[in-house]
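Good morning C.,

I know you're traveling, so I'll keep this short. The sequence:
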Amino acid sequence: MIQQYEEKLLSLIDEMVETASDDELFAGGYIRGHISLSAAQCEQEEQFSVDAMNTKVDESIATAQSELSPVDQVIVKQMWENLKMSAEH
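The tokens, ready to paste straight into the viewer:
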């Protein structure tokens, strides 16, 4: 389940490339790393639910938010919320 969800999220990011703004491209690349890291952590910890994966990504982004400017933090959080909504439907 986690692998399918990860693939869906990454596919959604890839689909944006042609129409995305520079900010969206940055956020997509940034989130991609958090998604892959979180999926690997879930598998290692034998957590296989989408909710567990979403929680891991949320925590990962929150922990690393000091890397981003306040504006970039908003862009990344908005994109992550949009990706979750799109992937779950």
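Safe travels,
E.
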